[in-house]
């Protein structure tokens, strides 16, 4: 496995671990009915969470090559690998169109 794929996998694990805590802190920070002191306190707690626990830090990468661009979310593979596997017939239900 390449270093980029391992790093992305660790980020995905961190996102899953801190997801509920992050949502809870964000909800309190955005609630305007609460006093500012409490909102700032939870904003500070939110900033203390690991940066890699944010969803925006996760990058969709091909699981075979680690390519970051043109990755199909459904299969988690790049268009190049997808084309090769489809030509070989390795993907069930996917075949090359002909008319």
Automatic annotation (TrEMBL):
One of its GO terms (cellular component) is small ribosomal subunit. GO terms for biological process: translation. Its main location: mitochondrion. It comes from the Eukaryota. The keyword Translocase does not apply. One of its GO terms (molecular function) is structural constituent of ribosome. It is found in: Mitochondrion. Keywords: Mitochondrion, Ribonucleoprotein, Ribosomal protein. Belongs to the universal ribosomal protein uS14 family. This is Small ribosomal subunit protein uS14m. It comes from Scapania nemorea.
């Amino acid at each position: 496995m390449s270093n980029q794929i391992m790093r992305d996998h660790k980020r995905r694990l961190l996102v899953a671990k801190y997801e509920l805590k992050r949502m809870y802190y964000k909800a309190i920070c955005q609630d305007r009915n609460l006093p500012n002191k409490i909102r700032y306190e939870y904003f500070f707690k939110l900033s203390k969470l690991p940066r890699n626990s944010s969803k925006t830090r996760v990058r969709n990468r091909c699981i075979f090559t680690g390519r970051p661009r043109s990755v199909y979310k459904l299969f988690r593979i790049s268009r190049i690998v997808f084309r090769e596997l489809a030509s070989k017939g390795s993907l069930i239900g996917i075949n090359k169109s002909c008319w």
